[in-house]
Structure formats: C-alpha cells, structure tokens
Amino acid sequence: MATLPTPEEIMGLLRGVIDPELGNDIVDLGMARQVTVSPQGEVNITIALTTSGCPLRAQIQRDARARVIDLPGVTRVRLLGPN
Predict the structure, then answer these.
(1) 75: exposed, middle or buried (C-beta count within 10 Å: 0-12, 13-18, 19+)?
(2) Each residue's pLDDT tens digit, 48-72
(3) Strand 32-37 versus strand 42-47 pairing type
C-alpha cells in the first residue's frame, strides 16, 4: 500500500497553482486554506477564492485537482469552499 501524502506536501504542490489574474500561487494568496487526508486516501482541500464569482474558478479548481489526484495513495480529491 502506498504511503499517503501529508497535508504539508499537498500544500507544497498547491504552490504550483497560479491565479492567472493575480499572478501568484493560491497558497501565498491565502486561497488554499486547509488540507486533510483521510486514511482511505481521500483529500479535502478548502479553497477560498478572492471573489465568489471568480471567473477563473474552474481553471483554479482543475489545476489544484490535477496536481494532487495522481499522488500515490490518493483515491479522491474534493475541493471545498470556506464555511
């Protein structure tokens, strides 16, 4: 069985997701708020976009998912909004 990635490792990967409008990564911008990894390999990522109607929402979400889904042990990636 593959070793699961840590939330810190996933946050590191999310630094490669750039908000095209602002030119910075979603971690430095404070958009990537929280990462949890279940024992079953389910990854939950809480992302708070700068505006609720962010026109680049789909691209940012797609990029975040693509960076995480192929990691060893990851079975599912869920992107959540802040509460």
Answers:
(1) exposed
(2) 987 666 678 889 999 999 999 999 9
(3) antiparallel
Question: How many independent structural domains does the chain possess?
Answer: 1
Reported as type and span, the H/E element at residue 37 is strand 32-37
- Per residue in 19-31, pLDDT (tens digit) is 988 899 999 999 9
pTM of the model as a whole: 0.89
CATH number at 70 reads 3.30.300.130
Residue type, 14: L
Question: Phi first, then psi: what are they for 5, rounded to 5°?
Answer: -70, 155
CA distance 77 to 42: 6
For residues 41 and 11, the answer to whether their CB atoms sit within 8 Å is no
